Structure formats: C-alpha cells, structure tokens
C-alpha cells in the first residue's frame, strides 16, 4: 500500500513539473508571438510613415500632405512625426475616422478630407486654433461638435453632401471670421440660428435641403452677398429679406414659390436672381431685347423677369407683399 502511495506521489510530482514546463513554454510562445507582432506593427508603421512622407510637398511656402484615390481607412499615430504639416488634402481614400490626435497638429491651416466615409468630427478639432479652412463634404457626418467654435480663425467651412446633418450648435456663431459656409444636400428644415448670427458670413449655400420658409431674422446676415437656396420647398419669403442690402446673388430655383413679392423690388443691389422651376401663378413674357446679343445673354427667370413679374402683378391690381399669396383667381391676363 505504501509503495502505491509513493508511486502515485512520484507521478503527481512529475506531472506537476511537466505542467509547469508546458505552461512556461506556452507563456514563452505567447510572449514571442506578441513580440513578433509588435515588431510587425512597428515595421508596418515605419512603412506607412515612409509612404506618407512621399506624399508631402511644399507649395507656396506651406508643407502639404496630398493623397488621392489610395486606401487609407485609418491614419497611423506615426503621422505625428510630421506635425509640421500645414495642409491635409486626403480625397477618396476611404478614411473612416479623423484621428483623435488631430489636435496636436497645431500648424494646420487647411484640413480637407472631402469624399471619404467619415462619420464623426472629434472634439479635439477645437484645438486647431490656426485652422482657416475645414472641408468635410461628401462624408457621412451627422453632427458637428460645439468645440469647432474654438477655431477662431476659421474662414471657410464646407459640410455639403453629408445627408444627415440637420442642425448646428449655437456656439458656432462665435466663428467671427467665417465668410464661406456650404451646408447643401443635408437635412436642414430651417436656417440654423448659429448661421443667422455669424457676423462675417458672405457666402451661404443651403441648396437641396428641406427648407419650407426663411425666418424673419434672415435680415441679420447683413454681410451676405451670395445665397443659394435651390431645390428646397420654400413657399414664401419674409418681408425682412428686402433689408439684406448687400445681397447680390439669390438663387431660388426648384422651390414652391407661387409669387414674387413686391418687397424684392427694394433690393437694389441684386445682380443675379433665379426663379426657374417654381409654380408661379403669373405667366410673364419678357419684352424682346434690343439686339441679338442682349437676347442671348438674358436670364429668362432672372432679374428682369422678377421686375416684370412684379409690374404685371401690380397691373393686375393684386400685387403681393412678402409672406402672402395671390388669390387663386389671378392669372396672367389680369
């Protein structure tokens, strides 16, 4: 019996030794595998950094990274070694995310990541205090962080064709130098208050959204000279639009306007306007041009059309003010 116990004990001891050896061997294998994987990652990072360095150029005194139609779904952290970059231009790369370390590129002046698959703007974007242009059109962005308002030098912001953006944080009205804003082809149902309160805004495109009317406060945009509102659902215009004294270009094609209000005749700085493809109640025929060249250059639904329409509506005795509509009985013959 004692011999059996001794034998069993010896076996168990040998088994325990072998289990320890196997465990240690497996741990060594795991560490070796992790070490090899780390070496591979380091090597891949170096290779990617080398490729990125090849895309860096100098133009007009600026250090620029340009990548077009190459697959870069993510950007390596080794990119931080190129923190002297002043412009990024990455188009059609399949980039899915703006890296969180973007805020460490303090020299960035232009960030153009259009035509990718980006779904989110990191809050770290607000650390780019020298940024002047941010172009994120043709992506999948749904919201804009309030931290963007910290980019005090921003002059140009393009968020067109993201499809799902429907509002902007009120804090963006603090972008005191923003002059150019493109919000076309999104889901806006009104002009956001943040936009109405941008003091320097000169150019605004809100075409192909879901606007049904303009707010009375549209007149706040006193610096605006170009306003694109094509392909919306706007049915009427507010009286206050006539107070936009600097407005020179107004595009209202493909909306649901039934009339051109009389107040627009007061907009003496208008140089180009487009009412094409609206269900206007009056059929207006422009007088013939004095010569062939004038006839060819004339915009059929432009400025002259607008003034003629207003005159015709007055002649009919049922001219309209802004935000009102003509009776159904009024027609082109008056």
TrEMBL record:
Signal sequence, renumbered to the chain: none
Location of the protein in the cell: Cytoplasm, Myofibril, Sarcomere, M line
Domain of life of the organism encoding this protein: Eukaryota
The entry's keywords: Coiled coil, Cytoplasm, Leucine-rich repeat, Muscle protein, Repeat
Residues in coiled coil: 15-46
SMART domains: LRR_BAC, LRR_TYP
Domain Disease resistance R13L4/SHOC-2-like LRR: 77-187
Annotated Gene Ontology cellular component terms: M band
Chief location: cytoplasm
Quaternary assembly: Interacts with MYH7 (via C-terminus).
Function statement: Component of the sarcomeric M-band which plays a role in myocyte response to biomechanical stress. May regulate expression of other M-band proteins via an SRF-dependent pathway. Important for normal contractile function in heart.
Stated name of the protein: Leucine-rich repeat-containing protein 39
Lineage: Eukaryota, Metazoa, Chordata, Craniata, Vertebrata
